[in-house]
Write a structure and sequence with these properties.
The structure holds four protein chains of four kinds. By secondary structure, chain A is an alpha/beta fold. In chain A, 28% of the residues lie in helices and 24% in strands. Chain A has one domain (8-325): Rossmann fold (3-Layer(aba) Sandwich), CATH 3.40.50.300. Chain A is built from ten helices and twelve strands. The longest helix of chain A has 18 residues, at 197-214. By secondary structure, chain B is an alpha+beta fold. Chain B folds into two domains: 74-173, no CATH class; 177-385, MetI-like (MetI-like fold, Orthogonal Bundle), CATH 1.10.3720. Chain B is built from 14 helices and four strands. Chain B has helices spanning 3-8, 30-34, 38-48, 50-67, 69-72, 175-211, 213-227, 231-240, 248-279, 282-290, 294-330, 342-347, 352-357, 363-385, and strands at 93-96, 99-111, 118-141, 145-154. Chain B has a four-stranded antiparallel sheet. The two termini of chain B are 37 Å apart. Chain C is globular, with a radius of gyration of 21 Å. Chain C has a domain at 249-333. By secondary structure, chain C is α/β, with parallel strands linked by helices. In chain C, α3 crosses α4 (142-155), α4 packs across α6 (174-186) and α6 (174-186) runs parallel beside α7 (204-221). Chain D is mainly alpha-helical. Chain D has a domain at 101-328: MetI-like fold, CATH 1.10.3720. The longest helix of chain D is centred in the middle third of the chain and has 38 residues, at 184-221. Chain D is globular and about 85 Å long. Classes of the chains: A alpha/beta, B alpha+beta, C alpha/beta, D mainly alpha. At the A-B interface, β6, α3, α4, α5 and α6 of A face α1, α2, α10 and α11 of B.
């Protein structure tokens, strides 16, 4: 991958997260679920990187490793701090992470489970500030009011509890909480998939607007390719714990280089009855990350698979500037994308 | 981001939401409900359960007795008078004709010419008037000051007309007064042993659930071991092992600890389970990512989330403790005379012949049933109300 | 509306939930027709009443829910073939647990439920549960029923069907479970298949497989399908005719082309505008629908959409509920922008 | 599945050894020993024994040895199938416990079957007829059942029978069969007597099980598989019995693991009140008399029964639930 670029905010190198499978009375480890298996990518400051894939592909695990909600099995995660230092998040312990916490925050999928029902809006949005040193209550009240206004809620709601709000409103509260400590990197894990269709656009607009205004960097984890396309500058595609492709959004959608990416895009039903989609069918099922096939993990389902795919795992390489793919046949295949 | 930017910020696309709140509550109570804390919501739901509220009042009454049993007692519970054995219960009448003027019928004794024993009968024609706040034997209120005022007593404390609301036992001791003292012991044993259980359970279950790993493994195995011991026989063996010459207070505390020792496992498991599931909750992760300390996460986010459940479970555990104490004492292996508990009192009712002669000796059993029933109803009410968010 | 050829005609259906806190009018006067061989799509967001409507058609609304009004007219299959002579029955008049209703349920109208995992009993084999359905409605031996089930498994593309029949639902992958559920629904050759969000719980590639399968089976068997979803993309690709619901009421009905290319109701219009599509210019601000869906307890007076509607007419939309009226040839709309008919109180 | 059972069986001796240590420590924990209290009893009766006799008795029972030697001696005799000698009765414990153990198990099993036979149908009825009159009736009964200590219930029944009919409902046999050897008539006589103590013993459990069954079934009735079964056209009655009832009972099977042992040890109190010849009263007396080998043996038997009860329930659970059977814990 490229050398430490000045505009990089985060660079992930060879990240692995294995979950041991334990069995029996003595809880012996009999195998590993390779949730994230040797993943490398980077995020530039101010951009949105989309991380897509089907359920169980490891995208959520990867994002939680970056925030160090999980301890990675191995790999490096270099983060360029506000002060201009490069630190490896993978090597820090709980105490070492604390000063960095304000710089990276998260927006959750579930607007119900992510807000403590026993705390008022003021306590929820104000807590990150409080634990990071803003102990003056009056200051916090003012700041929470600002944040609520910023995400489109009325400051008077501060004394209310989450149960008084709808899903979309709660998601706004979650965003306000994430922004309260002026983060640079925001990891959004499926931020709109639990919301009603008519509310999704509100949240997407808000996120785009806030990014522009506050120069935020997003890691946008999602399974909905339309939403990802709408909001991301670059997109990385995961399959069974591995990255299969990463490219600028338009390039990826127009000319995917990995058969899985192409199949994924062909499967998206387009909301236009005149455009018939879904005619190419991806056969078979996703293999288990506890017991993946040899060679390229995608080969049992791939119509272009040749012998080398069955034995040799492909390398994740840059085939054109900024376009990474892990496919043996990437150079020779011409795959259909989405007409733009 | 600077404050200037923030204040000038105004979202263009999304107008500030003015839409009615999409809450699960009816529209009218909206504002009140919006700012209602969890405990308020629990209370509002609990309040709807009339049976539970009534039971709670019953329990409050019981615990008032626990605080000042002497005030409710009519006689010294230890005063024996062999001549006055097996006096039957007197019914308490609140009205004399239409006037409020409580009285009890007098008791008349006659020696049975065949058995030569005194036999007592209720004489409904003779009324013993009752007065409130009368003077009687001296006692200390909560160990603070001495008084001799009792809730009720005969009009003239010097007269020979004593009142025996629940009759007397084989030694002529007043059953009502003894029950007041028994209430103190039994209700306290239940409460204290559950509090101890909760402390053990929350501590060990919390450690097990939050930290996991080998600590969890050890505590889990310990709980399994304790749970596979046969409870009642082990209780008996432990209480039998208490030295005979211990003072009543020592025995009392020993019994409490023994009950708690075996009782904490259930609560410990529950706490562990709650911790395990809470650890996976997004709001706990959010607190972690915000940079909260472990201590803050546990005390601000996790413990408050299951506190109402623990209170409900504890309420349901108290009656189990009460029944256990009563059973142990009834078998002669729990609280020992001269201390008085419901179980000790019921020992007097073990002999079926005696019981046939003096069925009122079962009255402490009725108290047990009422107390246990009330705890169960309150506990169920709390459990149903404990989760206002319906997870 | 053309009543002659309709397989199912729902007329002014009302399903209310009588709760301690009050009455939730989950379905509040819904009317539509489904014709033989048609894929009838229903779109709507949470709380719009789409699932309850379908449960009402099957007469499996659980208490405290209750059908309080309307008709569900069903073209009952008579013994022999010949659709013309088939009698029309009103399912609302049946007792929910009567033999007559049970003979229609499963045999003539079948359900593909939302969660394939939870929709099989985990302690009975899948084969047992499918064979049970076959034995209920067909006069065959147990062995023959097993053969039918086996054939169904082959039809829906389940590999090694013999073995799968004797497995439990939790041993199957998500995609196979979905296929097994479809096999069970189709096992008695129903005339109408109700698919209640059949692909919500599965991934996009599995979704594509399931949708293709359903389309193929529908073509082979000429059964009608009612397809419920909140995904406009799925509806556009699957349905011939679309009904849009919001808070227990029908907003608009029409052919799939009319709904997507000439939507009349402000809700349909706004909904279509607000979703990002894969072919759209990225990173532009999307037109949004303001506010959120109110809880059914707080249902607004008049047109339920009026508080969020840009074109709402004060004094009209917030006071009276518009009726569903024919606009153009095949499109029905309930909106005062197009007519002045209101729902009779 | 098989591996799981074998694992459990292998674990059993270790658990028993662990429990035997706990038990032995408990029974010899009280200050003094059987002889001290024995001598005291003799002295209060006016007779006395001399030093030599005391020493002889001590040696006979190994009481002059340190605690761990006493334990090892006891263990040695247990491993030979001999539970040791009762200090008080001067008879082998095996002989004393023998028939009483059979009666203990018989009583517990009887109570167990009554519980299930009553609680399951009552729970199903309550869940399928929520808020009906009978549902409320069961609820009231359940609360009272849970709230009444079983010795209270025994006392009340005995008192009613005695004062109204002059009947004594204690004991497990009619007087003529108490000492008789086992025979068909004796079994019949036992069956005539056992049901009342069994009901007394099982009533709290029945109440609890009814409530749990009701709650479980209500949970299951809301599951999607019920909707899909209903949509097949299955009749409501058949459906409820085949699916949700089956799934609601499954978790109850695991309650056998603690309920059976609870019945074994719970019978102790009922037996004392109702004068039943099972091992309960024997334990009580042994404990108060510091008859340590007898008490220890009975406690160990209780432990054994408890472990076996748990094992039975685990095996049953695996049999009825394919998820456990095939995943193999």
């Amino acid at each position: 991958m490229t050398n430490a670029n000045d505009s990089h905010l985060l660079e992930v190198r060879n990240l692995k997260k294995y979950f041991p499978i334990r069995k029996g009375f003595f809880r012996k480890t009999v195998g590993n679920v390779r949730a994230v298996d040797d993943v490398s990518f980077f995020i530039n400051e101010g951009e949105t990187l989309g991380l897509v894939g089907e359920s169980g592909c490891g995208k959520t695990t990867a994002s939680r490793c970056i925030l160090r909600a999980l301890a990675p099995t191995s790999g490096e995660m270099i983060f360029w701090t506000k002060e201009g230092q490069a630190v490896d998040l993978a090597k820090l312990n709980r105490r070492g992470l604390r000063p960095l916490r304000p710089q990276m925050q998260m927006i959750f999928q579930d607007p119900y489970g992510s807000l403590n029902p026993r705390m008022t809006l003021f306590d929820i949005v104000g807590e990150p500030m409080y634990v990071n040193g803003m102990t003056n209550r009056k200051e916090r009240v003012e700041r929470v009011a600002e944040l609520l206004r910023l995400v489109g809620l009325r400051p008077e709601y501060m004394q209310r509890y989450p149960h008084a709000f709808s899903g979309g409103q709660r998601q706004r509260i979650g965003i306000a909480r994430a922004l309260s400590v002026n983060p640079r990197l925001v990891v959004a894990d499926e931020p709109v998939s639990a919301l009603d269709v008519s509310v999704q656009a509100q949240i997407l607009n808000l996120m785009l607007d806030l990014q522009k205004r506050l120069n935020l960097t997003y890691l946008f984890v999602a399974h909905n390719l339309s939403v990802v396309k709408h909001i991301c500058d670059r997109v990385a595609v995961m399959y069974v714990g591995k990255l299969v492709e990463m490219a600028p959004t338009n390039e990826l959608y127009r000319a995917p280089q990995h058969p899985y990416t192409a199949a994924l895009m062909a499967a998206v039903p387009v909301a236009d009855p005149r455009v018939k989609t879904g005619n190419v069918e991806l056969k078979g099922e996703v293999p288990s990350p506890a017991n993946p096939p040899p060679g390229c993990y995608f080969h049992p389902r791939c119509e272009y698979a040749v012998d080398v795919c069955r034995t040799q795992p492909p390398e994740f390489r840059e085939i054109t500037p900024g376009h990474f793919v892990s496919c043996h046949r990437a150079d020779e295949l011409k795959l259909p994308g989405v007409a733009l | 981001m600077t404050n200037d930017e923030m204040t000038s910020a105004k979202t263009k696309n999304d107008p500030v939401e003015e839409v009615p709140l999409g809450s699960v509550f009816a529209a009218k109570a909206e504002e009140r409900v919006s700012v209602a804390s969890n405990w308020k919501l629990v209370w509002w739901r609990f309040r709807k359960n009339k049976l539970a509220v009534i039971s709670a009042l019953v329990l409050i009454a019981f615990y008032i007795i626990v605080l000042v049993p002497d005030f409710f007692a009519t006689q010294d519970p230890e005063a024996t008078e062999a001549k006055l054995a097996f006096i039957p219960t007197q019914g308490l009448n609140l009205f004399d004709g239409t006037n409020f003027s409580p009285w009890v019928p007098a008791v008349v004794g006659k020696r049975n010419p065949v058995t030569l024993r005194m036999e007592f009968k209720i004489d409904e024609t003779k009324k013993v008037p009752i007065r409130f706040f009368t003077e009687g034997f001296k006692y200390k209120v909560l160990g603070l000051f001495e008084t001799n005022i009792h809730l009720i007593g005969p009009q003239d404390p010097k007269s020979a007309d004593w009142i025996y609301l629940f009759g007397t036992d084989r030694l002529g001791r007043d059953q009502w007064s003894r029950m007041m003292y028994g209430t103190r012991t039994s209700m306290t044993v239940g409460l204290v042993s559950v509090i101890l259980s909760v402390i053990f359970g929350v501590l060990l279950g919390g450690i097990s659930g939050y930290f996991g790993g080998w600590l969890d493994l050890i505590i889990q195995r310990l709980i399994e071991l304790l749970q596979s011991l046969p409870t009642i026989p082990i209780w008996l063996a432990m209480t039998a092992a208490l030295p005979q010459d211990w003072r009543p207070e020592q025995v009392f505390f020993a019994i409490t600890i023994i009950l708690a020792f075996i009782g904490w496992t259930t609560l410990g498991r529950e706490v562990r389970g709650r911790f395990l599931s809470l650890r996976e909750e997004d709001f706990v992760l959010a607190a972690d990512l915000a940079g909260c300390s472990r201590f803050r996460i546990i005390t601000r986010h996790m413990v408050p989330s299951f506190m109402s459940h623990i209170i409900a479970s504890s309420t349901l555990a108290i009656p189990v403790m009460i029944i256990s104490e009563t059973s142990l004492s009834f078998l002669g292996l729990g609280i020992r005379p001269p201390a008085i508990s419901w179980g000790v009192l019921l020992q007097e009712a073990q002999n079926i012949q005696t019981l046939a002669l003096a069925p009122w000796l079962l009255s402490p059993g009725i108290a047990v049933i009422i107390a246990v029933l009330a705890f169960n109803l309150v506990g169920d009410g709390l459990r149903d109300a404990a989760d206002p968010y319906g997870h | 509306m053309n009543n002659q050829t309709a397989l199912l005609s729902v007329r002014d259906l009302q399903v209310h939930f009588l709760m301690d806190e009050g009455v939730v009018k989950a379905v509040d006067g819904v009317t539509f027709d489904v014709h033989a061989g048609q894929i009838f799509g229903i779109v709507g967001e949470s709380g719009c009443g789409k699932s309850v409507t379908m449960k009402a058609v099957l007469r499996i609304v659980e208490p405290p829910g209750k059908i309080v009004g309307g008709e569900i007219l069903w073209r009952h299959r008579s013994k022999q073939d010949g659709s013309a002579g088939d009698p029309v029955v009103d399912l609302v008049k049946f007792d929910a647990n009567s033999k007559a209703m049970r003979d229609i349920r499963g045999a003539e109208i079948a359900l593909i439920p939302q969660e394939p995992m939870a929709s099989f009993s985990p302690v009975h084999t899948i084969g047992d549960q499918i064979i049970e359905a076959i034995l209920l409605h067909q006069d065959v031996s147990k062995r023959a029923a097993r053969q039918i089930a086996l054939q169904m498994f082959k039809d829906v593309g389940i590999p090694i069907p013999e073995q799968r029949l004797d497995e439990y639902s939790w041993q199957l992958s998500g995609g196979l479970r979905q296929r097994a559920i479809i096999a069970m629904a189709l096992s008695c050759n129903p005339r109408l298949l109700i698919a209640d969000e059949p692909t919500t719980a599965v991934d996009v590639t599995t979704q594509a497989q399931v949708l293709r399968l359903l389309r193929r089976l529908q073509a082979q068997r000429n059964a009608a399908i009612i397809f419920i979803t909140h995904d406009l993309g799925v509806i556009a690709q699957m349905a011939d005719y679309v009904m849009v619901m919001y808070l227990g009421l029908v907003m608009e009905q029409g052919t799939v082309n009319d709904i997507f290319h000439a939507p009349k109701h402000p809700y349909t219009q706004a909904l279509l505008r607000s979703i990002p599509t894969i072919t759209m210019t990225p990173r532009i601000s999307l037109p949004t629908i303001s506010g959120s869906i109110p809880h059914p307890f707080n249902k607004p007076r008049g047109c339920p959409f009026h508080p969020r509607c840009e074109k709402a007419i004060t004094g009209k939309c917030d006071a009276r509920t518009p009726a569903l009226q024919l606009i153009g040839e095949k499109q029905l709309v309930s909106c005062f922008l197009y007519h002045d008919a209101e729902v009779a109180a | 599945m098989l591996r799981f059972i074998v694992q459990r069986l292998l674990l059993l001796p270790f658990l028993l050894i662990l429990f035997s240590i706990i038990v032995f420590w408990l029974v010899q924990a009280p200050p003094g020993d059987f002889l001290t209290s024995y001598i005291a009893t003799l002295a209060s009766g006016g007779s006395s024994i001399n030093e030599a006799q005391v020493e002889a008795l001590k040696r006979q029972f190994g009481l002059d040895q340190p605690g761990y030697v006493q334990y090892l001696l006891w263990m040695e005799s247990i491993s030979k199938g001999d539970l040791g000698l009762s200090l008080e009765y001067q008879r082998p414990n095996t002989e004393l416990i023998g028939e009483r153990l059979v009666l203990t198990i018989a009583l517990a099993l009887f109570a167990f079957f009554i519980t299930w036979a009553v609680a399951i149908p009552a729970g199903i009825y309550s869940a399928t007829h929520q808020n009906s009159l009978l549902d409320y009736f069961f609820a009231v009964l359940n609360y009272i059942g849970v709230a009444t200590p079983n010795f209270m219930l025994a006392l009340i029944l005995m008192w009613i029978a005695f004062s109204n009919f002059g009947l004594s409902i204690t004991g497990l046999f009619s007087p003529e069969y108490i000492q008789a050897p086992w025979s068909g008539e004796r079994v019949v006589d036992l069956l005539k007597h056992i049901w009342l103590p069994a009901i007394v013993l099982g009533i709290a459990g029945t109440a609890r099980l009814t409530r749990v069954m009701r709650a479980n079934l209500l949970d299951e009735l809301n599951k999607p598989y019920v909707v899909s079964a209903r949509a097949k056209g299955l009749s409501e009655w058949k459906l409820v019995w085949k699916y949700p009832v089956r799934l609601a009972i499954n978790p109850l099977v695991s309650t056998i693991g603690w309920y059976l042992p609870q019945l074994f040890s719970g019978s102790l109190i009922v037996a004392t009140v109702m004068n039943l010849q099972n091992i309960g009263p024997l334990l009580l007396r042994a404990l108060t008399q510091q008859d340590m080998y007898l008490a220890g043996s009975i406690l160990l038997i209780y432990c054994f029964l408890t472990i076996v009860g748990t094992l039975i329930s685990d095996v049953l659970l695996a049999l009825v639930d394919p998820r456990i059977r095939m995943e193999g814990v």
